[in-house]
Amino acid sequence: MSQFTVLGAGGFVGGHLAERLRRNGHDVVAVSRRDRVAYDRTLGHVVFCIGLTTDYWKRPLDTAEAHVCALIPLLRADRFDSLTYLSSIRLYDGLEDAASETSDLRLNPQTARHVYDFSKGLGEALTHNVGRRARVVRLGNVYDNELDQDDFLCRTVQRAVREDALEVDADPEAGRDYVHVDDVCAAIEAIGLSGRESTYNVASGIVFTNSELAALCERELNCRVTFRGAASAHRSPRVDVTRLSREFKIDPVSPSGRLPGILKAIAAR
User: S-S: 160 plus which of 39, 167, 183, 217, CB 3.0-4.6 Å?
Assistant: First the structure.
């Protein structure tokens, strides 16, 4: 088995990843974001999970610090066997066609929302151009069986569990690529150990729309969910996950394949 250092292990993905790696027999050093890190030793395979996901637009300086500044000492020390930097498929927002790892990105520095994208993009650039044995993983919207995170999917489901009917201010035809954390952690482990490419999309490859979520909540939770928002100016592009599937034979399960069972279990509690 191998040595892993998980930076950001106190977070959602990092915590799940550290747990999986231990189950699989790896030697794991789990480092939370606020822990002091000593880079004067061999770190093994490092996974950089540090990041802001839900309130980044309110905290632009913290976002840059998490995605870029926390990465720099690690790259300077260069004491790792491999580095896997976790980024996001949000960088593909605004693209009209299927988004692959080689797609050119569209970013506007005057758009507050894009502070997140620029900071992740700079983290990626440093990983590629400074780090050796380094890869980038662009994640979809990650969920687990509990659906208790502070994000759009989880908040909608949490309300649907408590209420018979609810209205949500969102475009019914807008959608997101949701991917289960088990698929994510399996992919990160494989990429960290033997990834041959510089960048990987780790997502379901499916845009799961709000209207599909509404139908699922009505069927499994007996809650009528109505999305009444104005039509979005753009749609989330479909994310190409061919590279992940071809190299590792990992094919993340679509939301329509996983979510019904999860909602059934939640409803039965």
Answer: 217
